Amino acid sequence: MKKTFQCCFLILAAFIVQVASANAQDPKRPRARDAGVLVGVLPTGPLNAITDVAGVAVGQTTLIKGDNVRTGVTAILPHGGNLFREKVPGAVFIGNAFGKLAGSTQVNELGEIETPIMLTSTLNVPRVADATIDYMLALPGNEDVQSINPLVGETNDGFLNDIRGRHVGRDEVFAAIKNARGGTVEEGAVGAGTGTVAFGFKGGIGTSSRKLPSALGGYAVGVLVQTNFGGILTINGAPVGLELGKYYLKEELSSTKSNSSDQSADGSVIIVIATDAPIDHRNLQRLAARSMMGLARTGAAGSNGSGDYAIAFSTAPDLRIRNIPNARNQKSNVTLLSNEVMSPLFLAVIEATEEAIYNSLFRATTTTGRGHTVEALPIDRSLEILRRHGALKQ
I need a surface site. Which of 12, 136, 191, 246 has the fewest CB within 10 A? Predict the structure, then answer.
């Protein structure tokens, strides 16, 4: 039995390495900021990633198999401990509810997040939730737990992926959680973004952060997005999608018909927001709501078929809700930020969301699946448009 388990683990590890290698990012495709796209006025954190919020870790499993499997799972951990025993304040904001965000109602009822935040493909939500429950129940200290609320978001990757195959299972979920790390976050066509499409181009995972100056508290705000939606791509105010000739309603406005489905505005976006600011559920929900302004800046159409969700949490250690026998919860002794000082955090999340979406496009690579090919955003042409519109650092 022991040898069989070891053999299976080695096979799984080799498979994960093979998948990661097969989907290595093109070094010629820079992040938006590295290409001269400077978003907003606030400085970024050192990594310009959600992991600039201390303690936050990200893990991803990417599945690329044969001609039809282009999917995966992404895990965001607010801290490295037992999240059920040390919950974090959390909130969910809904821009448009055409989606399957499992666990959201309890988060907003209790104001707490008690599992890793998982992102995946639409039909894999129940499988990922089930595996996340298995993971949490098996943690030391959870032997008597009889209720777990997994928080699982999704976007539909069925254009490039065999979505009905429901290929993300327990092994992939466990690998994403156990391999979660701080530091640099891989972006583009990886993890839950492997098969997604945004603005008619290859979408995926993107991240960005902002760091408030010390005079404003010095707090960090990090954002990670899973992009799979449509509209008219706008970068730093420049009409990139329009000038590239790829945008929502183009065919209807020009009376030119085709069988392409990459111009639909339907789809979804999941926005995950982390901050070390000491704010509770109510202000976390207000923070999450402002991320929709960053989404709008990119030209999102907010269509009927788009599930637009934002999940926010605070990593402030003194705000953790401790469900540990004989442990005293310190929450009542914490001084929360007042409403009057939230505005800089609002701007931080708007800017970080906008830039994270750009990063998901800049880092994604052309992907073929299920007989379809979705081209990556043409960076050189996009940068030329930005130059002409004065939207690029000279």
Answer: 12
Q: Using 50, 70 and 90 to split pLDDT, how confident is the model at 11?
A: very low
Any domain includes 144: no
Domain extent for 277: 27-55+78-95+184-388
Q: Which of 73, 106, 307, 300 is nearest to 190 (CA)?
A: 73
Model pTM score? 0.92
Helix, strand, coil tally for the chain in percent (to 5): 35, 25, 40
230 domain residue, yes or no:
yes
Known catalytic membership, residue 308: yes
Taking each helix axis from N to C terminus, what angle separates 170-178 and 125-137, rounded to the nearest 10 degrees? 60
Catalytic residue at 255?
no
Let me know if 214 is a catalytic residue: no
pLDDT tens-digit series, residues 191-223? 999 999 999 999 999 999 999 999 999 999 999
Output the pLDDT for position 331: 52
**Helices and strands, number each (H, E), in the chain:** 9, 15
Q: Which of 308, 314, 360, 382 is catalytic?
A: 308
Distance CA 194, CA 202 (A): 9
Number of structural domains found in the chain:
1
Considering the candidates 208, 268, 291, 314, report the single residue annotated as catalytic: 268
Question: Of the listed 209, 306, 314, 360, which one is catalytic?
Answer: 306
DSSP assignment, residue 43? P
Alpha-carbon distances, residue 198 vs 36, 89, 115, 270, 348 (angstroms): 21, 30, 28, 12, 23
Q: d(Cα 100, Cα 112) in Å, to the nearest integer?
A: 19
CB-based contact 132:169 (threshold 8 Å): no
Give residue 271's region: left, alpha or beta (phi > 0; psi -120 to 50).
beta
Per-residue model confidence (pLDDT) at position 328: 59
Contacts of 148 (CB under 8 A, 6+ apart): 84, 114, 115, 132, 133, 136, 137
Which CATH number goes with the domain that contains 335?
Answer: 3.60.70.12
Distance CA 47, CA 212 (A): 15
Provide the token pair at 14: 């080799």
Q: Is 124 inside a domain boundary?
A: no
- pLDDT tens digits for 300-333? 999 999 999 999 999 999 999 998 766 655 555 7
Q: Is residue 259 one of the residues assigned to a domain? A: yes
The mean pLDDT of the chain is: 92
Note whether 277 and 335 are within 8 A (CB): no
